[in-house]
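Researcher: Go.
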Amino acid sequence: MKPHVLLVFPHPDDETFGLGGSIVLHAQAGTPITYLCGTLGEMGRQMGSPITANRETLPHIRKQELQEACKHLGISDLRLMGYHDKTVEFEDRQAMVDRIYQVVQEIHPTAVYTYYPGHSVHPDHEAMAEATIEALERIPIDQRPVLYCLAFSSNHLQVLGQPDVVVDISSVAEAKMNAIRAHYTQSAKLLEKYVINQENAELRRFLDSERYYTYRWSQHE
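Model: Structure:
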């Protein structure tokens, strides 16, 4: 089976901050990447620094930012699901699962990236991650793609242990930074800190490595 990566995340910039470097590496290897983005992040609290958006213009701007970030990351197949930011948990779960499953059946991904349920903090993150897992559970376990999950809850290390995969993204750090810059409304304040102190550990971790858990199906079925 030819490699194909599927990303399932609720917000523009989830793909960049969490796994932008890994995406670039996949793209450089010639692997097609499909991104199911749940919302346009219209309820985001950041508006740029200086401010370039307001509540009415933010969805349109964030859509443009997402499209630009995808160019930097090498994502050519961006699919917007049209859900409303901060309400994904209230969407028809079965319909969401069906939509994800239809894409899985269409592209036959060999790897899927999403959040780790119970360890992704935001209700939108949790809802889309759970729907992704439910969609993949429709596939026989020995035929499922590898599911890589991002986790960042306060207790994820205690519960899940150390991440299963650590990806060195230092060779593509600039490409990831360009994607971060593309998400200007959400990243401007972060970038101001980076300019002031490029050795800030919180900022450096975005550019050095990315960490994932491989979802352990046998422990959940």
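Model: The beta strands are 5-9, 33-37, 77-80, 111-115, 146-150, 165-168, 209-214.
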